[in-house]
Design brief:
Bound molecules: flavin-adenine dinucleotide, 2-acetamido-2-deoxy-beta-D-glucopyranose
Radius of gyration: 25 Å
Strand content: 15-25%
Largest sheet: 7 strands, mixed
Number of helices: 11
Number of strands: 21
Structural class: alpha/beta
Oligomer: single chain
Length: 385
């Protein structure tokens, strides 16, 4: 009697499971039209998943002249690169676009499988089974005259971005003393005349932070012949613009700056690298209650966040990698996992036999096995039937 009723409950649940694929406006909603979001949209569109991509047009590398170290597109302006991607992806009829800003993403509680309501700034709502956040990071620069305007144009954030175009020029490092050796280790193959402008951070606290990062940092800076200037920085003045003063044959850009201090003589430099903070561009990760560590959305190797059905890609995620190739890789990877996960859910829903009764966790594990990835020991999300 007990067993019979248990079986009947189980088969009811199995039937419920068979009916449980949520009906939504789109299979996937992607938030972000940078290289990460575009790559995710491409991946799901090519297997005819319906998808809507939101792009509010705030891109991290918008300020830079040209994008580098993206093979096949070395030196392409970022806007041109995104435009070409949009044009190519637009050929897929299941890909849809919105230039609006997403204001909230709310899980829909009915049913066993995840689905979401996405609201935009015009008050419209859309539903989807899976969410991809490619919402990026935002750089927080100190508010001194001349810095913001020059960011990405002779004052760069990574040596791979614009270092080569300024190679062998006089070079400055901006930011805390604790980050100076790190920048030197990345840039010494491009520059030999290096001054670190540490803006008063060379005190006991700053030096302790430097030692915590690199034991023996002071000796190493001496060995690389790096000078430290501890004066308070007042402003950065542009003397020459590398957008017009450049040699396209040699891939060289000749920017020139004067850095001014609260006291003493200014110093001329051809280029600077910065060590300033970056934060999540979007408030959505916090709003949604996703795990965020050190300003990065925690993800597994499959780009899954702490919320079932929500994936995070590109600069915004915790991969510890912030560049265009990573954005594209992580977007592609999320697209594959999402497609196979949805297919597994659909496959299970087509069969109503009791032994096909799979828990959500088993479904997701199946999805992972199906594409040969067993690298998810940290997988903990499970909503058992
Ligand atoms: C000055 C500078 C130069 C750089 N140069 C290079 C380089 O040469 N090579 C390189 O590989 N990398 C470079 N980078 C790094 C590169 O910019 C990033 O790695 C890359 O942009 C990350 O792509 P993403 O798609 O994650 O984010 P982003 O390109 O920043 O895109 C974020 C997207 O999310 C959208 N968005 C956010 N919130 C919402 C919302 N609520 N609703 C709708 N849309 C939303 C934005 O509008 C945007 O479309 C540079 C970075 C900087 C700062
Ligand atoms: C959305 O943005 C794209 C790319 O910037 C642009 O081509 C398109 O015209 C915009 N669409 C609308 C409806 O504004
Ligand atoms: C859109 O969704 C939000 C969040 O779920 C909800 O508060 C709002 O009422 C919805 N608006 C419409 C027009 O359905
Ligand atoms: C220099 O330090 C002052 C005081 O801490 C700070 O307000 C300013 O933003 C810093 N400037 C730069 C360029 O780091
Ligand atoms: C660097 O500047 C800070 C702030 O003005 C000061 O406290 C510190 O003593 C200076 N360090 C050196 C080595 O002069
Ligand atoms: C660019 O560099 C090449 C090689 O050094 C040189 O021959 C040429 O004159 C330079 N062009 C300009 C415009 O300076
Ligand atoms: C999210 O945070 C919780 C609580 O700290 C933790 O148990 C869980 O493993 C985290 N999940 C992910 C995917 O990081």
């Amino acid at each position: 009697m007990r067993i019979t009723s248990l079986l009947s409950i189980l088969s009811t649940v199995a039937l419920a499971s068979a009916e449980s694929i949520p009906k939504t406006d789109y299979d996937v909603i992607v938030v972000g039209g940078g290289p990460a979001g575009l790559s995710a949209l491409s991946g799901v569109s090519r297997v005819r998943r319906t998808a809507l991509l939101f792009d509010s047009h705030h891109y991290r590398n918008d300020v830079t002249r040209e994008m580098h170290d993206v093979i096949g597109n070395d030196g392409t302006p970022p806007a041109e690169f995104r435009g070409l991607a949009r044009e190519q992806i637009s050929r897929y009829p299941t890909a849809h676009w919105s230039n609006n800003t997403v204001t909230s993403i709310t899980p829909i509680s009915s049913g066993d499988l995840s689905s979401f309501t996405v609201a935009d700034n015009t008050g419209k709502n859309y539903t989807a089974r899976k969410i991809v956040l490619g919402t990026g990071l935002r750089d927080v620069l100190p508010n001194i005259p001349g810095l913001q305007e020059a960011f990405g144009k002779g004052i760069f954030w990574c040596p791979w971005c614009d270092g080569y175009e300024h190679r062998d020029q006089s070079f400055g490092i901006l930011g805390s003393i604790s980050d100076v050796l790190g920048s030197v280790l990345e840039a010494h193959t491009l520059f030999s005349d290096i001054i670190a402008f540490v803006n008063g951070t060379q005190d006991a606290q700053g030096e302790a932070a430097a030692t915590a990062q690199h034991e023996g940092w002071e000796e190493q800076l001496k060995a690389w012949n790096v000078k430290i200037d501890n004066r308070t920085i007042e402003r950065i003045e542009r003397l020459q613009d590398g957008a017009t003063h450049r040699n396209r044959t040699t891939d060289t850009q000749y920017d020139k700056f004067l850095i001014h201090f609260a006291e003493g003589a200014p110093i001329e430099r051809g280029a600077f690298i910065t060590n300033f903070a970056s934060v999540q561009h979007s408030t959505l990760p916090r709003q949604m209650g996703l795990n965020v560590t050190d300003n990065k959305i925690d993800v597994t190797s499959a780009m899954r966040t702490s919320e079932s059905g929500v994936f995070a890609i590109g600069d915004a995620n915790s991969d510890g990698s912030t560049n265009v190739p990573h954005a594209m890789f992580s977007g592609k990877r999320a697209a594959v996992y999402i497609h196979v996960e949805m297919s597994r859910e659909e496959s299970a829903s087509k069969v109503s036999k009791r032994d096909e009764l799979l828990s959500r966790r088993e479904l997701e594990k199946e999805a992972i096995r199906a594409i040969g990835d067993n690298l998810e020991p940290q997988w903990t999300r499970a909503r058992k039937l």
